[in-house]
């Protein structure tokens, strides 16, 4: 049986660790040629490329700080040039800076928006120029767009709310071209962004399933949205949170 993404070319931003790395692995396992960006985890990025190539796949790691719009545009161009096009963009790279209201600096505010929001828009703008009918764009937002849950998270929640509304807006721009765009909203997921075991224990009772998510579970939803089967889903924010919002 042919793989769901054979002949497809994908770019995942922030693919060196966590949810992004799981999406890279899943799209590659489904047959896609996969490029991904990273900002600092060079060893991990190279190890993923080696792993995917050893399994017979095509992979490319690109150092591109999402805070730098030109670096994101160049990563899109390099992907299309290297693999001969672009069918799937997963805008995943994100950072989390938590601080109380009184202490939240403008520098941190601007960095949060540069990485979590501006880079997503810039990457989508650049990627859509390469996409044909059937193109797929997936943003990784967060359940915090709908429920902040705890103090200090207002700016992060704001960036993820912006991703949800951008996704709705761009569905209208891209729909006439047969390109879909959807937003995956994970709940608490066990990655480096969520490293503290005490936090995990505090979160578990808030989850209907009593546990945090795993990166490969989030990757499964992204892979579905990237598939031909998801052709009628667009502009949606899909929550995958173990019942955190339930
Ligand atoms: N974990 C959760 O509970 C959770 C819940 C909801 C939503 N999310 C969202 O899911 C996405 C992935 O989160 P995660 O938990 O997998 O985080 P993570 O484990 O911290 O991994 C973040 C990834 O993004 C890359 N990255 C960070 N800053 C970057 C920058 N400036 N430029 C380029 N790449 C950058 C990192 O690469 P380097 O190591 O090279 O910097 C890494 O590959 C984020 O958008 C996050 O907001 C996470």
Automatic annotation (TrEMBL):
Q: Region annotation Disordered: residue ranges? A: 181-200
**Ketoreductase domain: which residues?**
8-187
Q: Where is the composition biased (Polar residues)?
A: 181-194
Recall the GO molecular function terms of this protein's record. Answer: oxidoreductase activity
Q: Kindly state which keywords UniProt assigns to this record, in alphabetical order.
A: Oxidoreductase
Is Oxidoreductase there in the keyword field?
A: yes
Q: Which InterPro entries match?
A: KR_dom, NAD(P)-bd_dom_sf, Sc_DH/Rdtase_CS, SDR_fam
Source organism superkingdom: Bacteria
Query: According to its UniProt record, which protein family does this protein belong to?
Result: Belongs to the short-chain dehydrogenases/reductases (SDR) family.
Q: What is this protein called?
A: 3-oxoacyl-ACP reductase FabG
């Amino acid at each position: 049986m042919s793989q769901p993404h054979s002949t497809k070319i994908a770019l995942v931003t922030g693919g060196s660790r966590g949810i992004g790395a799981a999406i890279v692995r899943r799209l590659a396992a489904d047959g896609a040629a996969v490029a991904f960006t990273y900002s600092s985890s060079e060893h991990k990025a190279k190890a993923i490329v080696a792993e995917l190539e050893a399994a017979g796949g095509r992979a490319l790691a690109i150092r591109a700080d999402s805070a730098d719009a030109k670096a994101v545009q160049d990563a899109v161009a390099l992907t299309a040039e290297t693999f001969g096009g672009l069918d799937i963009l997963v805008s995943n790279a994100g950072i989390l800076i938590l601080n109380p209201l009184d202490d939240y600096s403008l520098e941190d505010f601007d960095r949060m928006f540069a990485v979590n929001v501006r880079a997503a828009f810039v990457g989508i703008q650049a990627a859509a120029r390469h996409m044909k009918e059937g193109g797929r764009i997936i943003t990784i937002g967060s359940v915090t767009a709908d429920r902040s849950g705890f103090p200090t998270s207002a700016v992060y929640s704001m960036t993820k709310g912006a991703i949800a509304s951008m996704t709705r807006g761009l569905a209208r721009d891209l729909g006439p071209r047969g390109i879909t765009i959807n937003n995956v909203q994970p709940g608490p997921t066990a990655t480096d962004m969520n490293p503290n075991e005490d936090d995990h224990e505090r979160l578990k009772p808030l989850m209907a399933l009593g546990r945090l998510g795993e990166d490969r579970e989030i990757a499964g939803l992204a892979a579905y949205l990237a598939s031909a089967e998801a052709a009628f889903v667009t502009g949606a924010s899909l929550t995958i949170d173990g019942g955190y919002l339930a």
